[in-house]
Amino acid sequence: MTSPARQRLLVTGGRGLLGNAVITKAVARGWQVRALQRHPSGVADGESVVDITGSITDPASIERAIEGCDAVIHLAARVGIEGRWSDFESVNVVGTEMVLDAARRAGVESFVHVSSPSVAHAGRALEGADAAPADPTTARGHYSRSKAMAEQLALATKGLPVVAIRPHLVWGPGDEQLVGRIVSRARSGRLFVIDGGRALIDTTYIDNAADAIVHALGRTASSKVQGRAFVISNGEPRPVREIVESIVRAAGVDTTLKSVPFAPAFAAGAVGEWWGSLTHTEPLVTRFLVEQLATAHWFDPRPSWDDLEWRPTIGLDEGMRRLAAHYQR
Question: Which of 48, 63, 103, 189 stands the most exposed, by the fewest C-beta atoms within 10 Å?
């Protein structure tokens, strides 16, 4: 796709931090955007962005939204820890299959499937790792397993130029998932790291994640890119403690970061999951969270640099300065 000028782009799941950032980036590059989600996106302007209220589990909604579109960014997903497998499967697996089928029938020229590094994570440390194939049999939890199945469907779709983008730990001003939870726990004195927080991890500033996703639209026709998954990150691995302390400092919170040994934390995670399943609430700690805090996970950025032809523009330190400015406002 040589020029997006006046071309139509469907973004599913256009609400939230990443969805809004993707829409903003797409409009800046000349796309006319349709945002399909259950509630208004908050960025519709009647010209560059049009909201279409509906669900990716409803074929009629998908058909109405995708009609006349040249490209699709599929962001919509059920996220989180709590919930039944059938809930995750219906949205993340069946819903994705419906969007893919509709895109193929509509003759869409470019399809970017937004995935997650967790689709290929089995709990082991990842140091300079490649984007391994998605594996539902080893993925942790309903979300990761369902997203692994969805990515497999997307990359195996015939007759549709598809690329999967896996943004790694996206954060930035307004983030209520990673940043919001860290700050909330710091304020309540419940923030901790595992084994001193020494594990190296990489993250992705929101502007970089959105830029990579929109950039990928123009690369799906390339033989180096089509049918592949790319992990997107800032390419700046830092110790967990450093990242967490930087976020807390940016929010202006004064707290002492506790360190917990892995074994009791992992046991507490198992108990938390059990209690959460009984009370239908999100546990304070899970085994997956403990693994994430205790093991290194950072990826080789060269595939995204060389084959996807994309590089981040906002460094980690600059992102933290922007986060601090956000909290000051």
Answer: 189
